[in-house]
Amino acid sequence: MANSLLARMSESLFPENREGTVQNLIHRMDRAEKERRDAFYYFDDRDVIHYFLYRNTNLNEAAQRSERTIHEYELELEQTVKNILQFAADIGIDIDEVVEGSLFKSLQPRHIRRYQTWMAESSPYVKKNGSYSPATLSRKTVILKSFFKFLYEKRYIAEPLHNSLLSATVRKDDRPNRDLGPSEVIQLLDYFEQSGNPIVFSLIHVLVGTGLRNEELCHLKVSDVLFDPILGGYYLRVIGKGNKEREIPLKGKVMDSIIRYRKARFLPAQFPYQSNEPLFPNSKQKAFRPSYFSTFLSNAIEKVPIHSIQAREKRITPHVFRHSFAIISYLNGVDVYDIMRALGHEQIETTMIYLQKIMNREQHAVLKWKEDSLGKYI
């Protein structure tokens, strides 16, 4: 079973021409409908993965899944298929008979339960790197539940496999500490300014001064810097998660850092300057890949000889400065809902996660004690 299915599923799992692939699948679905068969009657396992990933989910194109989301789903589903086929014996995938040549149709609830346990506790990744973070396990579970629920509702599989997956809840205590307050941000900016590193200085300054996501900064173009004729000054036009657009005003000194970055790369730094070139290109004048950008910035910060930075358990990534933006905004008296909108969050609960620790400390009972509560000892 494993060898034949692995050969079919591991080669070119994802198509180069998504649109053409989806149109072909829709044609087969129409044929099945005319013949009064189940919608996926003419699909195999690769087909259902393609349709699940690339189908239109909303009439409004701007509300479709983002490329980032699609890529995350691609990686997770590919890894799941290969893991099940390559490590079937270790996982306990005891399939006696392959149903219609399909891996997914052959799986039963016990197999999904065993796979989830194996993935979390004894997969090659865990043996090499240690346990997945609670957030990663939660993300993996959400993707698998969504996929198997889709297959069941479309009647491609007969068993509701999604019901066999345990929830992977992220408790508030499981979340990594990404708090980086204004004093530490200033220390970092001072260090890179004094050490003559305008590239890293400008990137940190822009991230903390805008609250941009890693991917958002990497995808910015020169033409996304616009002048505001009403309020004056410049702002960024940003396409965020779910292809939602928002505008981020640029403080004067943050705008200066954008210009400083481009001059350090020997690039034009006049605005308006209509160009689809990346606003923050790498050393090869190409747009940063988000994963590489995160590594590049984290590596640079990791070498900074500041005790509070070196003492942190987790590396400082671009996302940490998004938290800094939220914290600094809150300390400046900005309403939480305004912070939510500035960050492009859809739910206030997400923003509250960013502010949870600072709010808890600020509202601690001891800070409300009167000066003479313990006489001269307080």
* Structural class assignment: mainly alpha
Percentage of β-strand residues? under 5%
Mean pLDDT: 87
Q: What share of residues is helical? A: 40-55%
Shape: globular
Architecture (CATH level 2) name of the largest domain: Orthogonal Bundle
Q: Work out the helix count.
A: 18
User: Poorly predicted ranges (pLDDT <50, ≥5 residues)?
Assistant: none
Can you tell me the number of structural domains? 2
Q: Total strand count, please? A: 3
Rg from C-alpha positions? Answer: 25 Å
Major pleated sheet: 3 strands, antiparallel
Distance between the termini: 73 Å
In the sheet with the most strands, the strands line up as 1-2-3
CATH topology call of the largest domain: hpI Integrase, Chain A
Order of helices and strands: HHHHHHHHHHHHEEEHHHHHH
Please provide a brief summary of the model.
The protein is mainly alpha-helical and 378 residues long. The protein is built from 18 helices and three strands.
Please explain how this structure is put together:
The chain has 378 residues and is mainly α. It folds into two domains: 2-171, no CATH class; 182-362, hpI Integrase, Chain A, CATH 1.10.443. Helix content is 53%, strand content 4%. The protein is built from 18 helices and three strands. It has a three-stranded antiparallel sheet. 25% of the residues are buried. The model has no long low-confidence stretch (mean pLDDT 87).
